[in-house]
From TrEMBL, chain A:
Superkingdom of the source species: Eukaryota
Protein topology in the membrane: Multi-pass membrane protein
Region feature (Disordered): 1-64
Gene Ontology CC, one term: plasma membrane
Family membership: Belongs to the TMC family.
The entry's keywords: Membrane, Transmembrane, Transmembrane helix
GO biological process: detection of mechanical stimulus involved in sensory perception of sound; vestibular reflex
Species this protein is from: Cyanistes caeruleus (Eurasian blue tit)
Residue stretches making up the TMC domain: 479-594
Transmembrane intervals: 161-183, 204-227, 242-260, 330-354, 378-397, 409-429, 497-517, 599-620, 656-680
Protein's name in the database: Transmembrane channel-like protein
Main localization (coarse): membrane
UniProtKB/TrEMBL annotation, chain B:
Organism: Cyanistes caeruleus (Eurasian blue tit)
Name listed for the protein in its UniProt record: Calcium and integrin-binding family member 2
One GO-annotated biological process of the protein: calcium ion homeostasis
Segments forming domain EF-hand: 66-101, 103-138, 144-179
Listed PANTHER family: CALCIUM AND INTEGRIN BINDING FAMILY MEMBER 2, CALCIUM AND INTEGRIN-BINDING FAMILY MEMBER 2
Signal sequence range: none
Origin superkingdom: Eukaryota
Top-level taxonomy: Eukaryota, Metazoa, Chordata, Craniata, Vertebrata
Gene Ontology, cellular component aspect: cytoplasm; photoreceptor inner segment; photoreceptor outer segment; sarcolemma; stereocilium
InterPro entries the record matches: CIBP, EF-hand-dom_pair, EF_Hand_1_Ca_BS, EF_hand_dom
Calcium as UniProt keyword: yes
Amino acid sequence: ERKKEKKREKIKEKRKRGKKKKKEIKTKKEKKEKEKRKKKKEKVKQKRKKKRKKKEKEKRKRKKRIRLHTNLVEDILKKYRRKILFTNNYFWTLPVDFHLGTEMMVWFLFFLFCDSFQKWMKFQRDFENFKTACIPWEMKIKEIESHFGSSVASYFIFLRWMYGINMILFGLTCGLVMVPEALMGKPYGSLPRKTVPRAEEATAMNFATLWDFSGFAQYSVLFYGYYNNQRTIGWLKFRMPLSYFLVGVGSIGYSFMIVIRTMAKNANDDGGGDDTSFNFSWKMFTSWDYLIGNPETADNKFASITTSFKEAIVEEQESRKEENIHLTRFLRVLANFLALCTLAGSGYLIFFVVRRSQKFALEGLENYGWWERNEVNTVMSLLGMFCPTLFDVISSLENYHPRIALRWQLGRIFALFLGNLYTFIIALMDEINLKLEEEKIVKYNMTIWEASLYNGTIPENSTAPPIQVDPADVPRGPCWETMVGQEFVRLTVSDMMTTYITILIGDFLRAVFVRFFNYCWCWDLEYGFPSYSEFDISGNVLGLIFNQGMIWMGSFYAPCLPAINVFRLHTSMYLQCWAVMCCNVPQERVFKASRSNNFYMAMLLFILFLSTLPAVYTIVSIPPSFDCGPFSGKTRMFEVISETLEHDFPSWFGKVFGYATNPGLVLPFILLMVLSIYYLNATSKSYKEANLELKKKLQSVRIENY
Amino acid sequence: MGNKQTIFTDEQLDAYQDCTFFTRKEILRLHGRYYEMAPNVVPMDYTKDPDVKLPMQLIINMPELKENPFKERIVESFSEDGEGSLSFNDFVDMFSVLSEMAPRELKAIYAFKIYDFNTDNFICKADLEKTLNKLTREELTAEEITLVCEKVIEEADMDGDGKLGFADFENMISKAPDFLSTFHIRI
């Protein structure tokens, strides 16, 4: 029994020990857990401390930055202002006009105490980088500049600028006129105006007809006649006629705005006017063109600088010599007379040729070959090729200073092209009148035709269900607007072809001939006749300006014209860049580009003004065709505006507009504008006079001190 | 924006864009040009602002400057030590002033420095003669040279000291129509 008791005691002790151990283990676990919790708490506390420290650091940094900013920002602002003012020296302007200078001032104050100030600066800088990266052909132009100097490169910069304007015009016409009609208007074949007439169907797909822009090309969104006169089209309720009208007016307005803006910019850069008081100083310090990197051009430049100094010295020494005034005057009068004769002759030739083509048109163009059909265009292009050289020869009689001679030359070629263009337009007007007459006859015939459809089955003066006629069979009015558009497109295309062929034959083949036949020819071809050609800057610039004038005139009637012009300028840039580098030599007298740029702009402005006149005349005074175009059915094209005012705007708007267009209000407004122009002119004259007087005073003071 | 370059830190690039008229791409391109003139001397990594200068001989052989009669003077006026060795900062500075975007006043300051051969802050008759000889490759006779230099001083010298100070030069050059377009190097 004692053994059992002892065993029981031992077991009890063991249990007690076991319990103690468990308790120990428990307490140990608890301790561990407590320790873990403590560690976690400590960690959390440390983290919080770190965060607090970071925040304090950032606060300190911000304060530092603000202090730095207030010191540095002034410097940065100055530099940015300078940079921004002169970043727009490029001719290329994007439609987004980002006036960084004024924006900076406003946002600077706002973001100064924000952290995002730096981010904003970075965004602006990135945007500037993006903008400069978008400018095309920069490397090409730089190459040309280094070989040929700044004058030839100025033509390509001008070309690039024109390309920009045409891209915008293309965007307007394509996006707001052609694409909506293509997407939302009635499809081809649904209306008579949208279908090729039965008679022409056979030849509609031929390449010759398409090249001539008739056939399927004529009955498409490319020309005026395709557009329907429905007031709204599609689910968007897009107002097609209104959009067509506004795009036409808007593109002219935009072109005016941008040309004048560029002119104003150039005038500021000019450095103020006709100053000959620093002739020699300028020759000494500004004649070397730092852009020249080619040894050949450098040689030419050295030679031209030397000759220009010698010329100036000779002029200075002989400035008191009296020349034979009477002989030079007589020669100049003779030269002007000859030039006038040439101009009159060319004008008459165009007129005669246009009359002949009218005769051909009356008798049906199908009876005549290619020459008769394209007579007008080819004659105009040929005149454009040969008359300038004739004027060059005549100008050698005049013995002017080269710059003045160049201006006369430009003026005469300008008059030549103008005269040609206007005779062309007058011929077009004749054609339009003919078509209008024809239209009346067609209208009369339509009623007879419609009656013949019903074939006497239904008595007159009662309504009848319209008979389904295939649109191709409906007799058509002569759509004079499409005809006008076609003429302009054909002229542009033929001009383009002529330019390319002239470059290929006149420059490339000539260069090939001179290069390879030089070995087996009696005289040195490279130095004597014909030698390599020089790049004709003025001729090319004038060609570009007149081409643009035609685009402005014709784009109302042929929305595809800006697209064709964009294509033409794009290819022209590549072709001419290649031709210049490959076939041309730098000019002997490297022509300075800076001042004449405004001369070209002035001519462009003049051409723009002249181009808008015919378009405005036709819009305002000629009734649109009755069966084609977005204005068919109206008595005048601009009635679409009054129609929009009636339907789409509240009534009081129409009243206000009516009052505003009252002649009683418009005439005083015009009078006010004329008076303000007169006043501004007078003040600018007085400023110029004051300027001159100050200069004289300066000179007299200088002489006194000397 | 994803194009990682390790030549400059972002702050350096920003600083360059602030102080010059160049964009980020152009600065990187300039560094490429600077590097290819002396690949064994110029480091590709500019993050530590290394003190590397290229001698004048290398720089005046650049295609943009090779044909310029004033190339030595240009490089000398932009170098800090006046001897013609350019660090990268001077290099960028030079092309920034000569770029299209620099304003007229800034260009006038440096043009004055360039044409002042004896660095006495005046363009005297000797400086003018040197300029003329460089421009015409010494094709004019001595009388013609004296005539031209006299005419220049007569035209531009306002304070009557017989040489052109900076004020005279600036006054004359600010009216020049061709100055901005000729005093321009594209790189």
